[in-house]
Design goal:
- This protein is α+β, with helices and mostly antiparallel strands.
- The chain is built from three helices and nine strands.
- The protein has helices at about 1-15, 30-40, 95-105; strands spanning about 20-25, 45-55, 55-65, 70-75, 80-85, 110-120, 125-135, 140-145, 150-155.
- Strands 1-2-3-4-5-6-7-8-9 form a nine-stranded antiparallel sheet.
- The longest helix is centred in the first third of the chain and has 16 residues, at about 1-15.
Length: about 170
């Protein structure tokens, strides 16, 4: 029974973390692994994905560098589009945390922070905070974006994709 409960509680996390389509390094522009090697020389565990956002295709490279998780988004020519670095929400300044938590409290009846990232989106420095929250009796996952001062930018609902069944 304990194993069953653990699986039930971990299932949403598995859905939350999935990317679009895994690809081999052979199937990404050569400039992408070269960029990673040049700028993150001691990186480990690189995984490549093809991500589609509306009608635009990107290559995503996820890896660990200096004990932090990185996710780089590249356009189809291999140019860096976005850099995400996983951070600890607890390590943000108290004033920034307070502003972010106030926004969550305004929007959501209950919430739990699942992931925090420092994002360089085409030169705009942001925080991306992923939360699981209750709004109008519905539980959903959301991505909130804040500037580095804690000012709210936007929120998006995360559409979870079902994991294909073996049955």
């Amino acid at each position: 029974m304990k194993k069953f409960l653990i699986i039930i509680f971990l299932f949403p996390i598995t859905l939350f973390a999935q990317s679009d389509k895994s690809v081999s390094v052979k199937n990404v522009p050569q400039t992408i692994p070269e960029h990673i090697l040049k700028n993150y020389p001691s990186h480990t565990n690189v995984s490549y994905f093809i991500e589609k956002n509306a009608d635009t295709m990107f290559y995503e490279a996820d890896f660990t560098y200096l004990k932090q998780k990185y996710s780089l988004l590249f356009d189809t020519l291999g140019n860096v589009f976005e850099i995400e670095i996983e951070i600890s929400f607890k390590k943000l300044t108290e004033s920034v945390k307070k502003l972010i938590e106030e926004k969550f409290s305004l929007d959501l009846k209950k919430y739990k922070i699942k992931k925090a990232q420092a994002v360089d989106y085409r030169g705009m420095m942001l925080y991306e905070i992923q939360v699981r929250g209750t709004k109008n009796k519905d539980v959903d996952f959301y991505e909130y974006y804040f500037n580095r001062s804690g000012k709210f930018i936007k929120v998006e609902t995360i559409d979870l994709k079902p994991i294909p069944s073996l049955y």
